[in-house]
């Protein structure tokens, strides 16, 4: 047995040398978003992590303002599921609603949602090796 026999093999995610660059760590910590912002980010990304809600967002990106019936049909949701998902998206300010009589029309809250969606699509294509973006 040698002096390293009780040490687990080095894994790629481990530091080869355990030493902290205190100045760099302090600089990074200074630049990190505050805890409230991190919580908000986690909530939004969690909200966007559902395939059904993403289909609704994609439908709104393509179709612009749409009524619940059309959104449900376009995203292959039941009316109940579409309404529930849209309520979550509205509560979290991802979509806005306009009422006209008994009809509700949904649209994206702002252009940031499109930017997030488009950037994620580019990232996915890049990871897959697609070069047509």
Describe it for me?
This protein has one domain (22-128): Arc Repressor Mutant, subunit A (Orthogonal Bundle), CATH 1.10.10.10. 56% of the residues lie in helices and 11% in strands. The protein has helices at residues 22-31, 35-47, 51-63, 68-75, 79-91, 111-128; strands at residues 66-67, 95-100, 103-108. It has 133 residues and is mainly alpha-helical. A three-stranded antiparallel β-sheet has the order 1-3-2. The model is unreliable at 1-5 (pLDDT under 50).
Uncertain stretches: 1-5
- Please identify which CATH superfamily we are dealing with: Winged helix-like DNA-binding domain superfamily/Winged helix DNA-binding domain
User: Number of domains in the coordinates?
Assistant: 1
Range of helix content: 55-70%
Distance between the termini: 55 Å
Number of helical stretches of at least 4 residues: 6
Shape: elongated
Here the CATH topology equals Arc Repressor Mutant, subunit A
CATH first level = Mainly Alpha
Average of the residue pLDDT scores: 87
Structural class: mainly alpha
Order the strands across the largest sheet as they lie in space: 1-3-2
- Specify the oligomeric state: single chain
Rg: 22 Å
Q: What is the β-strand count?
A: 3
